[in-house]
Design brief:
Two copies of one chain form a homodimer. Chain A is built from nine helices and 28 strands. Chain A is of the alpha/beta class.
Chain lengths: 415, 415
């Protein structure tokens, strides 16, 4: 029966759109130290409470003057000014000065001093007297207070994923605490009576769980965290209880295994028994990974990924990750994509997005992509040998050898 | 004097090549849990101690048989076989069976059973008897022991930066501990008497240190860690001591500030006094960031970055990060680069690589890059407003409006 059902595949974009409509996850927020906010989602607009720079500053090494004094200066009518003071970087200028004040790049200007003459345009007549042979527009070489950021400006918007420069901006604003969305609680539940942990003894007939570890690491790459739940066996009652408890305690549940078309196709049934299902899609147009499913259960996300490692990973990349970013309402970060010449023909079925593992290499200036020999969707070695995916879209039957294709790189190009 | 020196700029690639020759950092290694190895550098070849899969398995749901029994089967001479047993996934097959054995995808095959007939090619005559109307080649639908990974194979090479799939592979190999390079010890030392911390009170004339925080976050993005040293004031003796101590306790020291051409150009002098300098380059062909310097001191790396935030950041991206990857002897991970149409002309000087901050946006299918208004290299707001760098190479004087250019994205494209 599962078999028949899976013959009808839903396009991954349609599945994402369908599921998105029913999502009702509401994330709380928490206040954290600004320097721990990399990759977190802003839960507030960051508004500057100050002008940056907070005072007028010199943009060059030179001499600050009152611009009006300078207006008539020229080669024929040189202007001489007494150097009455010096303002070092970080110092507060003294008040009431007249004439010229020596400044460095970044020095604050004394009140009334609105123009800076660069050192190279000045002749030093005496230790404390300069001569200027040309005029400068009022305001020249001055960084105006608030020129970079005006007080009251929304500098970083709510919903932004914090990058390193944003953290520098928070430092600049002296905003040492920042409100961010709480982290998504993501649980990974491997299913299958045959599953053992990597640390367990040597029964050759059991299946080592690799998926929970790969998925956790993929989450970590996106600055998210997932935690493992111990594998449950193929028993409807046990499975139902594990799924119910996981849904209640997490925003997102990712199951692996038990979704294929055999007799042990229990996970979707257990999901339906566990809680009220708003929307369920089973059979996604991705290869590997066609048995993949996704449901919205009590407003939360439940993914049913294949137990086969590569199918599980493709399910995550094609379906899970985009939906995780939907939940936090932030755009997926940009990914490295390169153009390469395909070294051998690859075929795909219409209606299915095929994720072909390729090894991209460089010959001279040119990049070439070689499909990696694949032994089926259980082989994780195809992923460690490759460094990228060629994604063949559902409307294509594949590419000929010699075609220029786009590769989604996940590892560096050697040589 | 600094001024004259800096007129001669070294190309960034030349600086990297020059410095690389003198590096003698030798990193130790440590053994960690396999699931904590994301982004770490392998310090051992990972060799499979097992065949994967460890036994012959069925690739389909169906019936395992001895291939020789099948050779003569056809529509005219149907073969009938007793179904004597069933092997579930994860179970050890019993020995000595004859006839047919029911299997699922992933079930181990009993000894001597070398071929699997998919369920859809079989007619079930009785509960325990099947009929087959065609022959199958011996070995059909079987995943051979070791087909994915042969025992003894080097699966992951020393020097590799661990990605999520590599972690899955370690799980598969039941290799729960793995030897990786120790982390680089990177210290960040802000210099300048005017520096204050973001958390310190409101002196408008002081400069808030943003660089240490931005640089730390940039390191974290590369799965590296940097620690701050308290800012030191512009005093040669104090600076020399701080630098000496930092060099002795770290592999890499990054100073910020104090490298420009003013009178406070003390950092390079302090570096030279601190320890024996093998190689020093000052004045790098990058803009912003021309006063940037790098030295090899006692075989370790000392970077002298500008105190101006954007110049500091460009110094990190162009010079520091590539050299950090040289030290760990690993390729820089791939970065997202997109092609976009430039919306206004940008100019650059020959001999200098200019890092122009641009905002890339989408109009229909096309990407456009708009240079962000810049107020000088002190403005970190140009970086939070932009989402990428247009890097104008040293041999180019810039690009006209409408040119197709490559943009190094560091944040997502909105809209």
């Amino acid at each position: 029966m599962g078999y028949r059902f899976l013959k009808k595949l839903t396009k991954v974009d349609d599945a994402i759109a369908l599921v998105s409509k029913h999502l009702t996850i509401e994330l709380g927020s928490e206040e954290i130290n600004f320097d721990e906010s990399l990759g977190r989602v802003l839960a507030e607009d960051v508004i500057s409470r100050v002008d940056i720079p907070p005072v007028n500053k010199s943009a060059v090494d030179g001499y600050a003057v009152k611009g009006v004094d300078l207006l008539s200066a020229s080669r024929y009518s040189p202007l001489r000014l007494k150097v009455v003071d010096e303002v070092k970087i970080g110092e507060r200028p003294s008040k009431g000065a007249q004439g010229a004040v020596k400044v460095a790049t970044g020095s604050a200007l004394p009140d009334g001093f609105d123009t800076v003459i660069p050192a190279e345009y000045v002749d030093l007549i005496e230790d404390d007297e300069i001569e200027v042979l040309r005029s400068f527009p009022i305001g020249d070489n001055v960084i105006q207070r608030g020129e970079d950021v005006k007080k009251g400006k929304v500098v970083l918007k709510r919903g932004r994923i914090m990058n390193p420069f944003d953290i520098g901006m928070l430092a600049q604003l002296k905003k040492t605490r920042v409100r961010v969305l709480e982290k998504l609680r993501i649980a990974i539940l491997p299913t299958g009576s045959e599953m053992i942990e990597p640390g367990e003894g040597g029964d050759l007939y059991k299946t080592v769980d690799t998926n929970a570890y790969t998925l956790s690491a993929l989450c970590r790459e996106s600055w998210m965290e997932a935690h493992h739940i111990n594998a449950v066996k193929d028993d409807l009652e046990t499975l139902t209880q594990a799924i119910r408890s996981a849904i209640r305690n997490n925003h997102v549940l990712i199951t692996t295994g038990g979704t294929s078309v055999g007799e042990l196709d229990l996970v979707p049934e257990a999901v339906q028994r566990a809680e009220s299902v708003k929307s369920m899609v089973r059979g996604i147009g991705i290869r590997p990974g066609r048995p993949t499913g996704v449901a919205v259960v009590d407003g939360r996300l439940v993914f049913m990924l294949s137990g086969f490692p590569t199918a599980c990973i493709v399910g995550f990349i094609a379906l899970v990750r985009p939906l995780l970013y939907k939940v936090i309402n932030a755009p997926e970060p940009p990914k490295p994509i390169v153009r390469a010449i395909l070294k051998s023909k690859v075929a795909s079925s219409l209606g299915v997005a095929s994720y072909v593992r390729v090894k991209v290499g460089r010959v001279g200036e040119e990049l070439f992509a070689e499909p990696v020999r694949v032994m089926g969707s259980s082989s994780i070695s195809s992923l460690t040998e490759a460094n990228g995916f060629l994604i063949i879209p559902p409307e294509s039957e594949g590419f000929d050898s010699g075609s220029e294709v786009q590769i989604h790189l996940y590892d560096s190009i050697q040589g």
